[in-house]
Amino acid sequence: MRITIAFWSVLILALISLNSNAQQNSGEQVLFTTSISDDATPAVLARIMIADKEPISEIKFEKGTYHFYPDKAYERFTRISNHDDVMAKTAMPLLGFDNLTIDGQGSTFIYHGRMIPFLIESSKNITVQNVTIDWAMPFHSEGTIVANDEKNNSFDIQFSDEYPYEIRNEQLIFIKEFYEHDLGQSILYDPERKAIAFNTEAYTSITTIRNSKVQHNVDKINYKYKTDPRSKVEKVRGKEDNLRVEELKPGTVRIFNHRKKLPPVGMILVCKGDQSLNRLAPAFRVTGTDGFNANNITVHHAGGMGLIAENSSDLILDGFHVKPSHGRMVSTSADATHFVGCRGKVVLKNCTFNNQLDDATNVHGTYQEVIDILGDNSIGVRMGHAQQQGFAIGKVNDTIGLVDLQKSFFGYNHLTLKSITPINGRYQIITFNENLPSTLKVGDLIENLEGYPDLLVQNCTISRNRARGLLISNPKKTLIENNFFSTEMEAILVPVESSHWFESGNAANLTIRNNTFQDSQHSGFNRGVIRFVTDDDNNNIAFKNIQITDNKFNQFDNMILEISNVDGLLFEGNKITNSGTFPMLHPTNPAIRVKASKNIVFKKNEYKGKAKNILETDDSMPKLKFR
Q1: Is the confidence at residue 165, as pLDDT, over 60?
Q2: Cα dist from 573 to 491, 562, 569, 613, whole Å
Q3: What distances in angstroms separate CA 596 from CA 74, 117, 510, 532, 534, one per listed residue?
Q4: Residue 19 — pLDDT band, cuts 50, 70, 90?
Q5: Which helix (H) or strand (E) holds 211?
Q6: 361-366 and 470-472: which strand pairing?
Q7: CB distance 279 to 304 below 8 Å
Q8: Stretch 91-118: mean pLDDT, rounded?
Q9: Do the Cβ atoms of 430 and 398 come closer than 8 Å?
């Protein structure tokens, strides 16, 4: 498809009015052919940019492989929850579109550099289907451990030609198209199992930094306002490079000064760079959108999450597969999917979430901290985590809960939202329709009580990945059924994360049934396969109405279930066996641990594990029995 000078003139005019671009209910069916496959960005972008004048109802691609480059892509500054703030480049800025279907018809889209394949904002009823997404060069790097030397505290890594590098000031830097990263966050994969290595926590992360040896008057710096020790500026203070790297021969390097155990020969070391710099190119970014369907989608890779959705509703993923390509150990470099402040329905069914470097999904709201009380009905709030900057807690008339976590995990009062005035990425002024209660004080948190969905996770395979399977902080209704889990950390984590990530939500009405759990927690952590936990160390109830029924746990280690701060949990009809797959890491653990809870019931369960003590309780339920 040849783009003329006149057509580019239309494109430039369209750029001026992009934010008001609105896709109508009907329009042209557009077909792109493989004639644009060398770089599809200009042609696809040009047609999308004039959709306000020439509406589109469907975009199809002739089946083939299409490359997308950032050089001629649309660019805008974008704050993405749980990602880095980026100048996002995309060929598909779907901003204000309604009733649009994008059908790849079995095509593969290959991206180059820092791009977001699908940037979907303020839209309605968007469907993407029948497409595979990959990157020519991944945002992470992989190398094989070929030697280690206890005497000299060094180990050798061999990298294939897929992972170009240079050694800069004795530090290893991986070079990509339009991107580079250092060792940063790292973990071991087992090439035989194509999964996270057993007991990887004993060996990784590679200790890339140490405390600085020289500091002068640093303690004299005082801040008037609260600072974030995890921010890009603060996190590097007091730290210096710990490792020393030298090349032995082209493709093989030696690393000195690691402070954990030396990684075993034959394992694959995966590294993705510094934590505050390595989430910048999710495959799908969906925000402020009502109605999104992803059908028959494969995401082989992304420099961040496979899909991140914020403040959207009714998101249905059917056959959304995250799995690696080209013999790589890793698919996406962060979560497979992630939902923040979403409502209506969120459905994950018939999906595969394999080999991603974080969770299969995370469903939660957002806490914001009250910094100022500005008037009768206005407050100033602060974003707690660096990767939540700019997040809008809700929309007009949403119900906002006021929370004092020292007293309760549930709101002590609520107000309705009138307006949000962003001042900067960290600070916003929020105005309510009602006057503030006299009990509100600086340091309290707010959360959107409406920003949670009815969640279904059904017939999915979740395995071989770093971190957890599902993180559920959802007080509405959640059903998790007929899934397979094999994760290096918890298969299902139900948290209140109020101190680090500031992710809100008190799980309730949660049903976990007919699932298979196979050898989770094999990376070394001393935790349960299913775990309820809060950041705040108190006995207040956080979770209610939980049912865990008719599941199979085939686990190498003892700990199956950790229950904390729960009111109302039924554990019935479950079968627990010992797999013998790996040696036990924590043989003295019980199978189930209960603390700070009430109304817990065990019945009709079958236990064939190896724990000497099946059930351990604290004083909250001293007479509780496992049955």
Answers
A1: yes
A2: 19, 18, 13, 19
A3: 52, 46, 19, 11, 11
A4: very low
A5: strand 209-211
A6: parallel
A7: yes
A8: 98
A9: no
Residue of 475, 491, 622 whose CA lies nearest to 555: 491
Answer yes or no: are the C-beta atoms of 491 and 462 closer than 8 Å.
Answer: yes
Residue 193 neighbours by CB distance under 10 Å: 14
Rounded-to-integer distance, Cα 354 and Cα 285, Å: 20
What mean pLDDT is predicted for residues 146-151? 98
- What three-state secondary structure class fits 592? strand
pLDDT of 584 reads 98
| C-alpha 162 chain-centroid distance | 26
Which helix (H) or strand (E) covers residue 249, if one does?
A: strand 244-249
Helix 5-16 and helix 41-49, axial crossing angle in degrees, nearest 10: 60
What per-residue string of b and e applies to 123-159 under the rule 16 or more CB within 10 Å gives b?
bbbbbbbbbbbbbbbbbbbbbbbeebeeeeebbbbeb
- Nearest alpha carbon to residue 263 among 148, 184, 142, 158: 148
Using alpha carbons, list the distances in angstroms from residue 123 to 70, 287, 449. 23, 8, 23
* 151 phi, psi to nearest 5 deg: -65, -45
Looking at the chain, the whole-number percentage of residues with pLDDT higher than 90 is: 92
Instruction: State the pLDDT confidence band at 9, using cuts at 50, 70 and 90.
Output: very low
Identity of the residue numbered 539: N
The yes-or-no verdict on residue 320 having pLDDT over 90 is: yes
Percent of the chain clearing pLDDT 70 (strictly above): 96
Q: Quick check: helix, strand or coil at residue 240?
A: strand
Residue type, 413: N
pLDDT above 90 (res 289): yes
